[in-house]
Design goal:
- This protein is α/β, with parallel strands linked by helices.
- It is about 45% helix and about 20% strand.
- Strands 3-2-1-4-5-7-6 form a seven-stranded mixed β-sheet, sandwiched between helices.
- The structure holds S-adenosylmethionine (SAM).
Length: about 240
């Protein structure tokens, strides 16, 4: 990646995002653990708690990458009493083949290559839609939320997990320093790719705050929109329902 995402015109953004993730797919999971100090596992686990997966549920995990969220969803649903209900199902949908392939053998979740802005699925297929650390990379968020609404059944729920900026000044100052000093260097040392991780830091700063994002979700037709900050606001989970 020769330049940071901030210099890129909107119509050039999509292919560049593809490049960014191809270059990091292999070391992706290791980097997640290193950068977040393992916290991304906790954030995803809380997300799965809120989803409350049960037999018969059907998840689409968009921008699902190597598919760990979908895998946990299925494991949780499968651990519940079946009571003659059908097995839960999950599909990992990602725009990048390499990411899908890297996680292929990790769970029984299906894998489909597709764009969050134009999902290759019929209307009203799913009980749960999730997008974890993916909405920040989507060019047209409104389109992605409309697609989430379209593909969810009535009664279905939306879960958006994404980095954010801590609201408390003192914590924000520490977080900003960590982002500037540690993340790009870690990216260079471990993945040999400083630019992708500088892009990560920049894109988190540009991303709308939780109230603005909640408004965008409402505008796509969702009800009961709420959010939960995690780890002092480093990460935020938005939840909403299609009623
Ligand atoms: N959800 C996974 C996780 O939490 O570990 C992966 C997150 S990774 C930071 C972002 C993913 O978004 C990448 O796998 C990338 O290929 C995918 N992505 C980016 N733009 C996308 C789009 N428009 N539609 C679908 N996936 C997209």
């Amino acid at each position: 990646v020769p330049f940071g995402m901030r210099d890129v015109a909107p119509d050039e953004k999509a292919p560049l995002v593809g490049e960014v993730f191809r270059s990091v797919a292999t070391s992706y999971d290791v980097m997640n653990d290193l950068m977040s100090g393992g916290m991304h596992r906790v954030w995803k686990s809380v997300t799965v708690d809120r989803m409350n997966p049960q037999p018969g549920h059907h998840l689409i995990d968009v921008a699902g990458g190597t598919g760990d969220l979908a895998g946990s969803f299925l494991a949780r649903a499968d651990s519940r009493e079946q009571r003659q209900r059908p097995q839960a199902e999950a599909i990992v949908c990602d725009i990048n083949h390499a990411m899908l392939k890297a996680g292929m053998d990790r769970s029984r979740a299906g894998r489909v290559c597709g764009d969050a802005e134009a999902l290759p699925f019929d209307d009203r297929q799913f009980t749960h839609y999730s997008i974890a650390f993916g909405i920040r990379n989507v060019t047209d968020r409104a389109a992605a939320f409309r697609e989430a609404y379209r593909t969810l059944r009535f009664g279905g729920r939306l879960f958006v997990l994404e980095f954010s900026q801590p609201p408390q000044d003192w914590f924000r100052a520490i977080y900003d320093r960590y982002s500037d000093l540690v993340i790009p260097r870690l990216g260079e040392a471990v993945a040999g790719d400083r630019e992708s991780y500088q892009y990560l830091v920049d894109s988190i700063r540009r991303f709308p705050g939780p109230d603005a994002l909640a408004m965008e979700i409402r505008q796509a037709g969702f009800s009961r929109v709420k959010y939960e900050r995690m780890t002092g606001g480093v990460c935020v989970l938005h939840m909403a329902a299609k009623v």
